[in-house]
């Protein structure tokens, strides 16, 4: 599903984000990416989504070697990767359902089917009663869930989220994490960047720890 | 195919929504472009209306030699022969109109008949009409012939009949070049106006473009609404400019009607043919879309 082979990435000579990092994430895994602020958690997610290019090494996502993907082909890969950034990037000149309809318009979905699917996505994140609300009228947790609905409406195989619970209280953060868990349980490979150790302890199956120039992979053993 | 059509419909909806959200700025922009497009359109209307009038008049250069009233009646025929022999390469025809023939033709005109009856003799001279072969040196040649023939015995004076038509033709040619230059300048103005409008729009839609790319939009998907915006703005501006020209030609035609009647003719300024107008509309839409594409490609590299 996601395969990194000796991937290196740095933004300056003295600031290496990744150095020869290699790992594989298989279908249906739930992986947390942990590390201090500025360590490169967001960069790792952007490398997976094809939003950044590595300095060295090979990245394979959904069986496609990213460095062989042309600029024209990259958007089609992004359709199979749902991305939720820390800043939700919601469009405030549209209501909630119109925000969710955007990815469906991108793939040219028929209007009626698109509306049905957008409503289903809002329902999955518990926002079906807010479909006509402007994002500005929603709370922080609701905005985050709306961003999730937009990311999953095209049924991506991979879901990546960058600090989705950073500005949320404990209860709301847990609700958001439960949404990710639900998607993961139906087979969506999920990667969440966070520095919230409590949430990691509660939800993680596997944790990647990124520290400057160092990458560690910790499988988490859970009792049934 | 359906998917492609849906994406175009979506782009058109996005364009219309953006225009509706900023109606005054869009209207002002469209009006400016329409006014700019009106200039070459009015020019083209004048040229296309005058063109047939010029074509009706023969532009074959002709010179007329008026003989002295007391000249020997055979002198005109001698001069005609002499011209024909000496300048056969530059002369296309030579015709002698005797004073008697001219008088009889003039007498048939009722307006002149009474006046001629009052006169005792024939006041008209014998005339030799020389048709010249048209070429680049025609004006210089005619001038040279005029000076030579003027000094021949029996010749009173020499007149170049079609000089004014040639001047008019030269003026039309000047007008055509001028119109071409105006069209070019207006084209550049439209290009700049659309480029800037789309640049502003693209910057204000920065967030939407970034999100669209994030969810897998192709560059074509991102650019399409801007292309529609450029094409639509220029298309509507072109239609508006045609309406403005039609409206402006009305008072001009009222004024021309009186002038034309005083010359016993009818003349009016009209818009170019429907085919030409359709071509103009298509050109304006294409120019708008090209300019928008250029602008959006340059201004969405983030």
Highlighted features:
heterodimer; A: 224 residues; alpha/beta; six-stranded mixed β-sheet; four-stranded antiparallel β-sheet; 10 strands; 33% helix; globular; B: 302 residues; alpha+beta; Alpha-Beta Plaits; 2 domains; elongated
Instruction: Give the class of chain A from helix and strand content and strand pairing.
Output: alpha/beta
Averaged pLDDT of chain A: 88
Average of pLDDT of chain B: 87
Radius of gyration of chain A: 17 Å
How would you classify the helix and strand content of chain B by structural class? alpha+beta
Largest interface: A-B, 26 and 20 residues
Distance between the termini of chain A: 25 Å
Task: Note poorly predicted spans of chain B.
Answer: none
Overall form of chain B: elongated
How would you classify the quaternary structure? heterodimer
Helix and strand string of chain A, N-terminal first? EEEHEEHEHHHEHEHEE
Strand content of chain B: 5-15%
List unreliable stretches of 5+ residues of chain A.
none
Total beta-strand segments of chain B: 4
Question: What strand order characterises the main sheet of chain A?
Answer: 6-7-8-3-9-10
Q: Helix-strand pattern of chain B, N to C?
A: HHEHEHHEHEHHHH
Care to count the β-strands of chain A? 10
Topology:
The complex is a heterodimer of chains A (224) and B (302).
Chain A: E1 2-12, E2 15-25, E3 30-34, H1 41-49, E4 56-61, E5 64-65, H2 74-78, E6 81-84, H3 96-106, H4 111-124, H5 140-152, E7 158-162, H6 170-185, E8 189-193, H7 197-203, E9 206-211, E10 214-219
Helix pairs in contact in A: 3-4, 3-5, 4-5, 5-6
Chain B: H1 2-21, H2 23-56, E1 62-67, H3 75-86, E2 91-97, H4 99-107, H5 110-118, E3 127-132, H6 138-150, E4 155-160, H7 163-204, H8 206-214, H9 219-262, H10 274-299
Antiparallel strand pairs in B: 1-3, 1-4, 2-3
How does this structure look, described?
The complex is a heterodimer of chains A (224) and B (302). Helices cover 33% and strands 27% of the residues of chain A. Chain A has 7 helices and 10 strands. Chain A has helices at 41-49, 74-78, 96-106, 111-124, 140-152, 170-185, 197-203, and strands at residues 2-12, 15-25, 30-34, 56-61, 64-65, 81-84, 158-162, 189-193, 206-211, 214-219. Chain A has a domain at 92-155. In chain A, helix 3 (96-106) packs parallel to helix 5. With 224 residues, chain A is of the alpha/beta class. The mean pLDDT of chain A is 88. The longest helix of chain A is centred in the last third of the chain and has 16 residues, at 170-185. In chain A, strand 7 (158-162), helix 6 (170-185) and strand 8 (189-193) form a beta-alpha-beta unit. Chain B is α+β, with helices and mostly antiparallel strands. Chain B has 2 domains: 2-57 and 166-299, no CATH class; 62-161, 2-Layer Sandwich (Alpha-Beta Plaits). Helices cover 72% and strands 8% of the residues of chain B. Chain B contains 10 helices and 4 strands; from the N terminus they run H-H-E-H-E-H-H-E-H-E-H-H-H-H. In chain B, helix 7 runs antiparallel to helix 9 (219-262). The two termini of chain B are 30 Å apart. In chain B, 28% of the residues are buried. The model of chain B has no long low-confidence stretch (mean pLDDT 87).
